[in-house]
Design a protein that fits this description.
Elements (H helix, E strand, L loop, with lengths): L1 H27 L2 H7 L3 E6 L25 H16 L5 E5 L3 H10 L4 E3 L13 H17 L5 E6 L1 H8 L8 E6 L5 E7 L3
Parallel strand pairs: 1-4, 2-3, 2-4
Antiparallel strand pairs: 1-5, 5-6
Length: 196
């Protein structure tokens, strides 16, 4: 009889602890986590530190060794960003990335699960006249992704030219932009968050 009582007591304790954590979580989640769980916010991240500007002549999008890629510092920076987001209460995220290797390297090291390559996040550094059209594609992407967000953070890893076209401001490597958007994906306002 004593074993049954202990088993029941343990089960009740586990259930109570789970309920307490689930109930208390929103109180501990930061404003950032709560905003990213909503259908009005998206987080854009400029890829982490990759020395240089642009890419070498003749680079290939399918061969990372021909591109500008993350340094060891940039790789560590990417991990810190993911850790920092989790410390803010961001538990789940859908991560989309530019095809450029430095963006994929950043996105993978955030450690929020599988990443998806998204053409509208690709750089137009070499063809600046494509900026407005690419920005419209980015807005369409955001609009589509907001529909199925289901409380997950929407995290887009991209380039400084894409972010500048979207918000009108240059940001540093690994910096983030918390953007409040319309259901159509257009920008309402934003806040720059420096890389941790």
């Amino acid at each position: 009889m004593k074993l049954i009582d202990e088993s029941k007591r343990l089960r009740i304790s586990v259930i109570f602890a789970g309920w307490l954590i689930a109930w208390a979580y929103p109180a501990f989640a930061s404003d950032l986590a709560q905003q990213l769980a909503s259908s009005e916010h998206v987080l854009l991240i400029r890829h982490a530190y990759a020395p240089g500007v642009g890419d070498p002549p003749g680079y290939s999008l399918v061969r990372c060794e021909t591109q500008r890629v993350l340094s060891d510092d940039g790789k560590r920076q990417s991990v810190r960003i993911g850790d920092w987001l989790r410390k803010q209460g961001v538990r789940t995220g859908r991560v989309l990335s530019s095809i450029w290797c430095r963006c994929q390297q950043t996105a993978e090291r955030l450690n929020f699960g599988p990443i998806q390559i998204e053409p509208s996040l690709g750089s137009f550094f070499d063809e600046p006249d494509k900026g407005p059209a690419q920005n419209r594609q980015l807005q369409q992407l955001i609009s589509r992704e907001l529909l199925g967000k289901a409380g997950k953070a929407l995290i887009l890893v991209t380039h400084h030219v894409n972010i500048r076209e979207f918000v009108g401001e240059n940001i540093g490597s690994g910096d983030m932009v918390l953007a409040r958007v319309t259901p159509q994906g257009t920008l309402l306002d934003y806040r720059v968050i420096q890389s941790p």
